[in-house]
Design a protein that fits this description.
Domain UspA: 3-142
Organism: Chryseobacterium camelliae
Strand content: 25-35%
Number of helices: 5
Structural class: alpha/beta
Subcellular location: Cytoplasm
Shape: globular
Number of domains: 1
CATH topology: Rossmann fold
CATH class: Alpha Beta
Main location: cytoplasm
Strand order of the largest sheet: 5-2-1-6-7
Radius of gyration: 16 Å
Largest sheet: 5 strands, parallel
Order of helices and strands: EHEEEHEHEHHE
Oligomer: single chain
Family: Belongs to the universal stress protein A family.
CATH superfamily: HUPs
């Protein structure tokens, strides 16, 4: 069986990414390992009193993201593809690569929005970062805008 890691961000193009990953998994007899990396600073806010931490905000956000991750996993399983998932907080690129190594991934499947280089300069690109850092092959799926 081919192990496939698929990072998800719950954006509006996640469904396209998952559909492509499921098709690929079916073609190669693969298992999908979903990972969502939440930012480390979810519960922090800046206000009149400076930085404040609200653990209940972070807990609620993580709980909601876990529900979303479970829903995606169930859709994958319903299509006949085995799946597991992980939700962690931290630096996305590093945690995705760590998870891929832990699962002995044969591929990491990511999406490309085809944005300009200028976009990458200002916003950064997880796909670009993974491409430069990963020793595991990346399958980059074109995501339609």
């Amino acid at each position: 069986m081919i192990n496939i890691v698929v990072p998800v961000d719950f954006g509006d193009k996640t469904e396209q990414l998952i559909n492509g990953a499921v098709k690929f998994a079916k073609d190669v007899n693969g298992k999908i390992y979903l990972i969502h990396v939440a930012p480390s600073d979810i519960g922090f806010a800046i206000g009149d009193m400076g930085f404040q931490y609200f653990p209940e905000v972070e807990e609620n956000e993580i709980r909601e993201e876990l529900v979303q991750l479970n829903k995606i996993q169930q859709k994958i399983i319903a299509q006949g593809v085995e799946s597991e998932h992980l939700l962690k907080q931290g630096i996305a690129k590093d945690l995705i690569l760590e998870y891929a190594h832990d699962k002995n991934a044969d591929y990491i499947v990511v999406g490309s929005h085809g944005r300009s280089e200028l976009y990458d300069v200002f916003v950064g690109s997880l796909t670009k970062g993974l491409t430069k850092s990963s020793d595991i092959p990346l399958l980059v799926l074109p995501i339609q805008e």
